[in-house]
């Protein structure tokens, strides 16, 4: 149970840092979307890190790489909003 809580906390902090580093009007807002942004970034960083051999199969991404992964996810989010694939409700 504490592992899941730790993932949520690290995901939320990584999501906040990614939102601060990537300015833009169409960033996802709110606790839930920020947390999902950070967790998705951590999963992306873990997947890529394991694929290139940087992480062992049972090892996850660290805080810095989770933040970098969240920046990549946020960039993809912004491109999808700009292409009108995801609606921007101004939330």
Structural category: mainly alpha
- Secondary structure tally, helices: 3
Counting copies of identical and different chains, the oligomeric state is single chain
Order of helices and strands: HHH
- CA-CA gap between termini: 32 Å
Low-confidence stretches: none
Number of DSSP-assigned strands: 0
State Rg: 13 Å
How many domains in all? 1
Largest sheet data: none
Write down the overall geometry: globular
Strand content: under 5%
Rounded average pLDDT: 82
Give structural notes.
The chain is an all-alpha fold. It has one domain. 67% of the residues lie in helices and 0% in strands. The chain contains 3 helices and no strands. The protein has helices at 2-21, 31-51, 63-82. The longest helix is centred in the middle third of the chain and has 21 residues, at 31-51. The radius of gyration is 13 Å and the shape is globular. The termini are far apart.
Give the SSE map.
Layout: H1 2-21, H2 31-51, H3 63-82
Question: Which labels suit this protein?
Answer:
single chain; about 90 residues; mainly alpha
Summarize the structure.
By secondary structure, this protein is mainly α.
